[in-house]
Specification:
Layout lengths: L1 H6 L3 H21 L1 H75 L4 H6 L4 H12 L4 H34 L1
Helix pairs in contact: 3-6
């Protein structure tokens, strides 16, 4: 009887009372809209944090990859520019060599002109007949060929300069 008085019912009901009330409170908390919203907010926050961490790692990996590719392109551009500089130096040497040969041929004292213009010599007579028949002096043709070769080299130099500008522009 004393047990009933304390728990407000029979002894079996009294023993189940506190456990039953705890279960009821837990159910009430589970069904409480505020508690549900709080749990949902916590779940969403965890997902957002995980997504932010994945996105940050992905962005860092992409930035590292882009930086490596940019460095690679810059190195390739520098190598191409160096190769072009080397080619240009070689072409400039060709121009200098041809001009030096022309200067040596034209700058020195020569008596060939005198012999060629002397109508009494066989060379002079051949040149006179060539001029009389309308043929050009072979030296003029040789000079044209040399000038054409120089112009070709200059065109190649201009093309190399343009390629160098394109390469350097691409790397920037």
């Amino acid at each position: 009887a004393a047990g009933r008085a304390i728990f407000g019912g029979n002894a079996a009901e009294g023993a189940q009372g506190p456990a039953s009330r705890a279960v009821d409170k837990a159910r009430a908390r589970m069904n409480d809209p505020v508690a549900k919203a709080d749990r949902e907010r916590q779940r969403q926050q965890k997902e957002a944090d995980a997504k932010a961490a994945r996105d940050a790692a992905s962005a860092k990996a992409k930035a590292d990859k882009d930086a490596a590719e940019a460095k690679k392109r810059q190195d390739e551009a520098a190598k191409k520019a160096a190769a072009i500089d080397e080619k240009m130096a070689g072409k400039q040497e060709d121009i200098d060599k041809i001009q030096a040969e022309k200067a040596a041929a034209l700058g020195g004292k020569s008596n060939e002109t005198l012999r060629a213009n002397d109508i009494r010599s066989s060379e002079g007579m051949a040149q006179f007949l060539a001029l009389a028949t309308g043929r050009e002096d072979p030296a003029i043709e040789e000079n044209r060929k040399t000038n054409m070769k120089l112009e070709e080299i200059r065109k190649e130099l201009r093309a190399l300069q343009q390629e160098k500008v394109d390469i350097l522009g691409a790397a920037a």
